Amino acid sequence: MNLSVSIMIISHKYRFIFIKTRKTAGTSIEVMLSSLCDESDVCTPIYPPEIGHVSRNYKGRWSLGNEISRQRNGLNLKSATDWLKSRPFRNHSSAEDVKSRVSVSIWNSYTKFCVDRNPWDKTLSHFHMCKQRSNPPKSFTEYLSAKELCLNYPLYSDRHGKVLVDRVLRYENLESELFALLDELGVPHLGALQVNAKGNYRKDRRHYREVYSDKQRAIVEQEFAPEIALLGYQF
User: Quick check: helix, strand or coil at residue 170?
Assistant: First the structure.
């Protein structure tokens, strides 16, 4: 297949695939990684644009065979729309979509990684971001009741819940874990993220344990059970 297609980040030079998750400094990581990519690598655009990020090689068509075979009732509307618009990957494409839309050799030989975060902290951060949008939730309770939560586990697992990436880095130890991985991959870096993108929504800086009621805590524990079990997070 033509490898000039879009994704979050694919580095052919350093042989890694970065799966972008939400509320985990993904945009800051993208900006840094894009500066290390060369002309053959793939970077999706960031909206709104960030200084230092250069998008490239992010449009094209791909074979639909793998995608059709994994979707139970034929090609779904999202996949068909992406194909018609020559948009094989979105900014937050799932690992399952990525696996279907790159070659088997790339998927099997490149290191796939993403970042996730303590779900109670991440949920509170996402709530404050949603408050800046149109029709914001009136309260944290209303936000939780709407069940439009910041679930990242489906982005890096398949429809059966099997994790598809090689590494899930923890947001709480982001720089140490990220740069240790980049060292393993032989990727040059400055040892620090230079951009703090999309991180200024939350004005209430109380620790999340001071905010949650017992009922709210239990909702998050139930909804985020897979990543809590995988990464060992505790309230």
Answer: strand
Per-residue pLDDT of the chain (235 residues; tens, 9 = 90+): 333 333 478 899 999 999 999 999 988 898 888 888 787 777 777 666 666 666 766 666 556 666 666 665 555 666 666 656 655 455 457 898 888 888 899 999 999 999 999 999 999 999 999 998 888 999 999 999 998 999 999 999 998 999 999 999 999 999 999 999 999 999 988 777 866 655 566 778 899 999 999 999 999 999 999 999 999 999 9
Neighbours of 193 (CB within 10 A): 17
Give dist(CA 218, CA 235) in Å, integer.
10
Helix axes 119-130, 214-223, angle to 10 degrees: 100
Predicted TM-score (pTM) of the model is 0.81
HEC string of 5-53 equals CCCCEEECCCCEEECCCCCCCHHHHHHHHHHHCCCCCEECCCCCCCCCC
Residue type, 191: G
C-alpha 235/C-alpha 212 separation (Å) is 10
CA distance 151 to 119: 9
Residue 221 backbone dihedrals phi, psi, to 5 degrees: -60, -40
The token pair at 21 is 């998750």
CA distance 7 to 43: 6
Distances (CA, A) of 194 to 163, 191, 197, 214: 29, 9, 10, 37
